[in-house]
Structure to design on (424 residues):
């Protein structure tokens, strides 16, 4: 009786499963996208087709085919396929899988492939429990993660796996996915609607099929043909590929900084908006602007630091959403400001000299008059104040061993081209 109910449940579950689940590709030929690693004749594709898949870490955003690739491996392989979710699995669950793999290998010589979804959620002890089994060849590991594996997976385990980066699907690839979904639903989807769904899906095949399914169901309930309004209603906001602790955080922060450094205010505002929309901490953005104001603008426009610091204060004082105005003003100002990294280079080079040579003593003439060496200086070592004698401006105040060294070299841009510095 239990088996009857279980069979009926499986049948109904298949019927009620989301469209994305029902259309999950079962072969590499059905898989859309990821040609950069799974093209015909590629090393990974051949390894899967010839049932010699190595241990892998599949890394990429949601909806790009990580679990699908693992399931395709499961269908192709002659090995036993064990699957765990790092969200719910415990160390005991891993040990049980490894024991079954050991019994299987010893009893029939059959290999085991272990698929761990969301492997970045495994703690160190759980990852270590897999390490020796992978190292000894007891199991072939396939791990899937949305996080950067170089940050989230133990280095020892990572060194025994091939990291395979999977990329978001292009809009053209997503249109293929939507076309398959439409065929499965038995609905005609005009090319412009396919394109709209693809744009709204943000590189995520699962999201594209979910939008299509919800839009179609809404159209059926209305008793009207599928329209753009149904699609837009089903996808009110685009999915944002962003993780405040992962690759996207660093990629977008880098893009924001380099856009301001490169003098592109439009790009700077766009990346600022993308990070704010994704929930980035505005204080982080303000701090990066304060750093850039000195590192990349410097004395070519000294007011840039004032603007950046004022924006940082405004973030603390006003908060979002209003502080977006202050951050946007600062980002545009910094992008349009003349650029110089002369101040940054000066401190970097000076610190490098201190690290290499130690802290050289200042010339006797500029030491504190209250110090022993200051009181002992002779007439030839008398301090020359530039207020009393213009010759004071011509002296070299560096330690004797570093005389003639130039750390600050004006860029010639903005105010650094107007100030008439003594070495400019």
């Amino acid at each position: 009786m239990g088996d009857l109910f279980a069979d009926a449940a499986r049948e109904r579950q298949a019927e009620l499963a989301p469209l994305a689940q029902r259309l999950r590709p079962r072969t590499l030929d059905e898989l859309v996208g990821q040609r950069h690693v799974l093209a015909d004749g590629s090393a990974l594709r051949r390894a899967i087709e010839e049932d010699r898949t190595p241990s892998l870490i599949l890394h990429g955003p949601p909806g790009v085919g990580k679990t699908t690739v693992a399931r395709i491996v499961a269908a192709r392989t002659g090995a036993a396929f064990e699957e765990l979710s790092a969200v719910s699995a415990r160390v005991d669950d891993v040990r049980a899988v490894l024991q079954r793999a050991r019994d299987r290998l010893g009893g029939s010589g059959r290999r085991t492939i272990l698929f761990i979804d969301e492997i970045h959620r495994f703690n160190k002890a759980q990852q270590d429990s897999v390490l020796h089994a992978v190292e000894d060849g007891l199991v072939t590991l396939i791990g899937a993660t949305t996080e950067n594996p170089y940050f989230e997976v133990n280095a020892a385990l990572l060194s025994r796996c091939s990291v395979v980066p999977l990329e978001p699907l292009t809009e053209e690839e997503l249109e293929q996915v939507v076309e398959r979904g439409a065929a499965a639903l038995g609905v005609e989807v005009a090319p412009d609607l396919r394109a709209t769904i693809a744009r709204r899906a943000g590189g995520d095949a699962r999201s594209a099929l979910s939008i299509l399914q919800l839009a179609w169901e809404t159209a059926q309930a209305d008793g009207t043909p599928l329209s753009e309004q149904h699609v837009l209603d089903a996808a009110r906001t685009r999915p944002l590929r962003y993780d405040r602790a992962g690759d996207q955080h660093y990629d977008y922060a880098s893009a924001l900084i380099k856009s301001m450094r490169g003098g592109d205010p439009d790009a700077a505002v766009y990346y600022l908006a993308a990070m704010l929309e994704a929930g980035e901490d505005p204080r982080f953005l303000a701090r990066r602007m304060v750093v850039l104001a000195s590192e990349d603008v410097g004395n070519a426009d000294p007011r840039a630091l004032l603007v950046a610091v004022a924006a940082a204060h405004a973030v603390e004082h006003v908060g979002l959403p209003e502080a977006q105005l202050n951050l946007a003003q600062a980002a545009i100002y910094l992008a349009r400001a003349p650029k110089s990294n002369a101040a940054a280079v000066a401190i970097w080079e000076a610190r490098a000299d201190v690290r290499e040579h130690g802290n050289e003593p200042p010339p006797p003439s500029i030491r504190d008059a209250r110090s022993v060496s200051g009181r002992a200086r002779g007439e030839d070592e008398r301090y020359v104040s530039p207020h009393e004698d213009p010759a004071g401006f011509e002296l070299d105040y560096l330690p004797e061993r570093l005389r003639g060294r130039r750390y600050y070299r004006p860029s010639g841009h903005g105010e650094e081209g107007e100030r008439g510095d003594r070495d400019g």
Summary: The radius of gyration is 31 Å. The first strand starts at residue 56 and ends at 59.
